Amino acid sequence: MITLGINYSQMHDSSACIVRDGELLFAVAEERLSRVKHDARFPELAIRACLEFAGVRAEQLDEVCFGWQTAGPVYQHDLKLYALGQWPVTYPNVLNSTRQFLSMWHQESGGRRFVERFGATKVRRRFVDHHLAHAISAYAYSGFEESAVVVMDGRGAWEATSIWRGADGRLEHLLTIPFPDSLGLFYSAFTEYLGFQPNSDEWKVMGLAPYGEPGVKLDAFIDAAAAPYRVFAKRLPIDGNASSTLSLLGAPRKPESDIDARHKNLAYAVQDACEKAMMNVVRVAIAKTRCRNLCLAHAFFYGTGAWRILCRSIGLTVLQPGRLRARSCRPFLPAPHRTGRDTCRIIRLSGFLVSLTLAYWNGCRHDSVCRAECSCVFGIS
Questions:
Q1: Where exactly are the structural domains of the chain?
Q2: What is the number of other CB atoms lying within 10 angstroms of the CB of residue 217?
Q3: Is residue 65 within 8 Å of residue 3, measured between CB atoms?
């Protein structure tokens, strides 16, 4: 069986991969070929590269799998948030939600685009729940027969965080925290507030955080002590909603302007809050599954230096340094630009094994590489 995996949501980082009889043959992000950073267009170039590498034509495919739900559930969740007052009902918000839905609905969530580019075929189409795809990307490559699996995303269709139990090659869903109760949203909002590009430059906030000092209070925006956490999304400085943030934290930093102590301290507070909330989620996952293995999925864990806080808080030691030849992932990803004692794929956590599906390089992740490789795994973002 030959399966083509496609990541396409018009949000960021489209990509594709191709699998034959369960073996991943090739995977690439569209930006690597188009040279457009975070290219969100339909990944025609990536698909052609996959087909060429595998030596097959589109009509020879058995399945085409998309790493997102169809357009309807995403829009339905947005409408529910507006109706319940959980997301600001502003003209830009409603317009963007509606335009995204109509565009993806017209394209049959990418299916029509595939036919337009590669011709009509009898290939079977499958649309995989986004967080399930993330969970598979971690668990399937972990080498664990049984594992707790944690997914943290900016948003899926309706999901922000989810917990799964993997056993005997299958995943059981245990918990979902719906968007907009999202640590990814929280982090990207303050990434923009600090003058950086949201959903792209979060690694800069992570790098700025160690230069800050404790003292900034973010209780108005997040309850990191809740079980497992609570984000007050309507108070976040997004979509022009900066009034509450201005009174508490001052004016946002203008892009490319000087960085002062106030910005460093805010980055420290954002990083600290996310790490505490993330630790709560991990504890809930371990308690729910009673499992001694743990898989962490999605770039949020790497953009926020998640494994470092696991090291500090619970005592991790690195098992696989260097070029990442660990059983948590087959060695199809390019080697990192730099290697060192911080680089790992499997780490030991007070008797637990933690599988990471991305690399972390000497405290600094190379964003253009890291996001692309994450999006390549089974064609998901």
A1: 1-66, 70-107, 127-381
A2: 11
A3: yes
